[in-house]
Amino acid sequence: MSKSEQLDLDDVDYRILKELCADGRASDVWLGEKINLSSTAVARRRKSLEERQAVLSYSANLNLPMLGYSVVVFVAIELSSQAEKALNEFEREVVKCPSVSYCGFVSGDTDFLIMLNVESFEDYDRVYRRELSTLPHVAKIRSSFVMREVARRSTPPVVFQDKTTPG
Questions:
Q1: Are 77 and 135 in contact (CB under 8 A)?
Q2: Cα-trace Rg, the chain
């Protein structure tokens, strides 16, 4: 996204966004008290942020290990062809894989980077055989298992750095 396509947000918008990242269910009244703005003004700004797609959706942050998905796997996929048709076919099929939580087209020695949350190494073997290996144009699959999670953020703090003042 170029600089001209970025939204023009002020300090108050960033303060609202920061609080919504911490608690997407925060009420307009609570937000108003937190950032010293009326609940009506907060509601108007929140609606504007949603309409301009600065806020895409609200969701719950699930504790996946407690739900049985304690193994995180990063999978590097190299395709046999980088032709547009092959890329499009791969992308169309990978979004259908129920175990894929993230897939990005990347630069470097690989073509796509996928993140999976699986129950176990045996579960990964199932995903590998039934989902990953059946994807079109796959030449090489390299997997890395996360040994220890160090940081996980849906929004990195740099987004708000130097854009909000305490208040």
A1: yes
A2: 20
No. of helices (H) and no. of strands (E), the chain = 5, 4
Q: Is 143 exposed, middle or buried (0-12, 13-18, 19+ CB in 10 A)?
A: middle
- The two most distant CA atoms of the chain are separated, in Å, by 57
What tokens appear for 48 in the block? Answer: 């504007």
Write out pLDDT tens, residues 16-33: 999 999 999 999 999 999
| Integer angstrom CA distances of residue 32 from 14, 19, 165 | 13, 10, 15
The enclosing H or E element of 113 equals strand 112-118
* Cα–Cα separations (whole angstroms), residue 165 to 17, 44, 101: 13, 21, 34
**Type and span of the H or E element at 121:** helix 121-130
Contacts of 93 (CB under 8 A, 6+ apart): 135, 136
Q: What pTM does this model have?
A: 0.83
Residue 114 neighbours by CB distance under 10 Å: 22
C-beta atoms surrounding 56 within 10 Å: 7
